[in-house]
Specification:
Strand order of the largest sheet: 3-2-1-4-5-6-7
Helix content: 25-40%
Strand content: 15-25%
Largest sheet: 7 strands, parallel
CATH superfamily of the largest domain: Glycogen Phosphorylase B
CATH topology of the largest domain: Rossmann fold
Number of helices: 13
Number of domains: 2
Radius of gyration: 21 Å
CATH class of the largest domain: Alpha Beta
Distance between the termini: 20 Å
Shape: globular
CATH architecture of the largest domain: 3-Layer(aba) Sandwich
Oligomer: single chain
Number of strands: 13
Order of helices and strands: EHEHEHEEHEHEHEHEHEHEHEHEHH
């Protein structure tokens, strides 16, 4: 099949990482990838090609939209102003993208996140990867998404808002994870690189440093726990134009147990040395780092209760490795951190990639077959 994938980002975390794993293992198709054209900094296409692998035959750059339409999206004026410029450039140049798609007659066009919804054309075979809980009051955005030929929901939580909506084709399909390569890493060497003792209990917070991720909340809770064996490593960076990262660093300034590492390109190193992955979301959210941690044999600390776990069957296998607390409750998270007294044991490194790719292939074949039937 002739497939087009359009992504709103290209990096080491989240949606981009999931797409990279898919495309590296999606064989037997002619694959083209579109990435957002750089505004201030030009894309390093060689690096992007390395990210996504040899199955991608061509990488193209276009100005793409980025429309906030999901729960937890930022409300900072500077970020919204920046996105206004991005969306204006897309509006000015969008005909070029549509012309390119029309000329190449793709069998399927995959949008890697709902923030790309303005690209959807009901006369073209778009599918949307629903990686966020969509704000249903964004009526135009919802209308556009429902014009697609299919939706891939990453978990029951992202499916829930659409329970009363008519969807042409759908599947609930967890992200791909492959942490089997962790067995090739020397844990002691990585600990030396970061200057950490082998007896330390390592808690890692991974991803963008921003309010919706609750990094400041995690730091505040960690500061109240006084066990010197416990170290909090914070990986990632803040959003451009925001002072949130600096606020977090200022809060943690006088505690040597809290360390800001920055972005780590080889994220597998982080999971190899971490005992606990910690999430500070405002409610029960299952981000990519939750499952990457679990597939790496780490335990995970995240907001929620038992009823949240019951709604997500993908978590059933890992119940013994999950530690829950009341969302954005400092005392609750501190109590959870204090209750942990030992390093994680019985680690195993797992993968679901083959199963994921098989289900993805079955779904897109169904979408294409349905589209062909409708036309005839």
């Amino acid at each position: 099949m002739k497939l087009l994938f359009i992504t709103h980002c290209h990096g080491n975390y989240g949606a981009s990482k999931s797409l990279q794993l898919l495309l590296r293992n999606l064989v037997g198709h002619q694959i083209t990838l579109i990435v957002p054209k750089g505004i201030r900094v030009k894309n390093n296409l060689e690096e992007i090609k390395e990210f996504y692998g040899k199955n991608v035959s061509e990488i193209k750059e276009f100005h793409l939209p980025f429309k906030y339409c999901y729960m937890g999206c930022p409300d900072l004026f500077i970020q919204k102003a920046s996105n206004m410029a991005i969306n204006l450039l897309y509006k000015i140049t969008s005909k070029r993208l549509i012309k390119y798609i029309e000329e190449n007659d793709f069998d399927l066009i995959h949008l890697n996140a709902p923030v790309l919804y303005p690209v959807i054309n009901p006369d073209m075979p778009f599918i949307v990867h629903m990686r966020d809980v969509m704000l249903m009051e964004q009526e135009y955005a919802v209308k556009k998404v429902l014009q697609s030929r299919g939706i891939i929901f990453i978990d029951p939580g992202t499916r829930e808002p659409f329970k009363d909506k008519a969807i042409k084709n759908e599947i609930v399909l967890n992200n791909p994870f492959d942490m089997t390569t962790l067995g090739n890493y020397d844990e002691s060497q990585i600990l030396d690189e970061y200057g950490i003792g082998s007896d330390s209990l390592i808690f890692s917070c991974i991803g963008r440093i921003k309010e919706s991720k609750g990094v400041e909340f995690v730091i505040e809770s960690f500061l109240k726990s006084r066990d010197n064996r416990k170290i909090l490593l914070i990986f990632g960076k803040g959003d451009s134009g925001s002072d949130y990262e600096e606020r977090c660093k200022l809060m943690a300034l006088n505690d040597a147990r809290i360390r800001f590492i920055g972005e780590e390109k080889d994220i597998a190193k982080v999971y190899r040395i971490s005992d606990y992955i910690i999430r500070g979301d405002p409610w029960h959210l299952i981000g990519r780092t939750v499952f990457e941690g679990l597939y790496s044999g780490c335990d995970v600390i995240l907001p929620g209760d038992d009823s949240d776990l019951e709604r997500n069957p993908d978590l059933n296998y890992f119940k013994d490795k999950l530690h829950l607390y009341s969302p954005r409750n400092v005392d609750a998270l501190t109590l959870r951190i204090d209750s942990i007294s030992s390093k994680v044991k019985n680690r195993g490194f797992r993968s679901n990639v083959n199963e994921y790719v098989n289900k993805f292939n079955q779904f897109i074949k169904k979408v294409i077959a349905t589209d062909f039937t409708d036309k005839n």
